[in-house]
Amino acid sequence: MAIRKIVEMGKDDILRKHSRRVTKFDRRLAVLLDDMAETMYEADGVGLAAPQVGTLKRVVVIDVGEGIIELVNPEIVSQEGEAISTEGCLSVPGRRGTVKRPEKVRVRAQDRKGNPIELEGEGLLAVCLCHELDHLDGILYVDKMIEDVTDKVEEENE
Ligand code: NI
Q1: Is residue 3 part of a domain?
Q2: If you ran DSSP here, which 8-state letter would residue 103 be given?
Q3: How does strand 83-89 pair with strand 47-49?
Q4: Would residue 147 show up in a list of annotated catalytic residues for this protein?
């Protein structure tokens, strides 16, 4: 495993590109997932998407304190409710802002072997799923930000 360099907003336009679907569930994908998890933990994040480490693949890792979740080719299949919460992003260091997201989402994806998986997220997990999936389409939370609260709060939330 290796820690990869996290791309920052404004320094690399890869964050603005659409990621490609994964079609090969090979050793390379496994290494990417392992490296992304290590990079996320090292940076104290709760989620990381492949474009943030310079790879345009539809791959994300999340850990909101309940263990690692690996999602390949994830898609939101349904959503419910609305909630506003504070977000940050490892690619937008030192900043925080409020964003409105669904309260609950259901996501369909594949695991590292290509098996179909489905999961439901509420609260922080729902926020995280939406935030990370947005990265795969070149969208950053600051695009949806209601208010920049960088100087107002200190809260743990990717
Ligand atoms: Ni992010």
Answers
A1: no
A2: S
A3: unpaired
A4: no
Task: Give the closest residue to 85 by CA, choosing from 52, 53, 124, 50.
Answer: 124
Do residues 32 and 150 lie in contact, with contact meaning Cβ atoms separated by under 8 Å? no
What number is the average pLDDT over the span 2-13? 94
Q: Can you point out the beta strands (E) in the chain?
A: 47-49, 59-62, 69-80, 83-89, 92-101, 104-110, 116-122, 147-148
Domain count, the chain: 1
Residue 69 lies in a domain: yes
- Token pair 């290590």: residue: 38
Whether 115 maps to a domain, the answer reads yes
61 CA to middle of ligand 1, Å? 11
Of the residues 70, 87, 132, 158, which is catalytic? 132
pTM to 2 decimal places: 0.94
- Please report which confidence band the pLDDT of residue 12 belongs to, taking 50, 70 and 90 as the band edges: confident
Determine the Cα–Cα distance for residues 150 and 144; give it in Å rounded to an integer. 15
Q: For residue 114, what is the domain's CATH number?
A: 3.90.45.10
- Owning domain of residue 34: 13-157
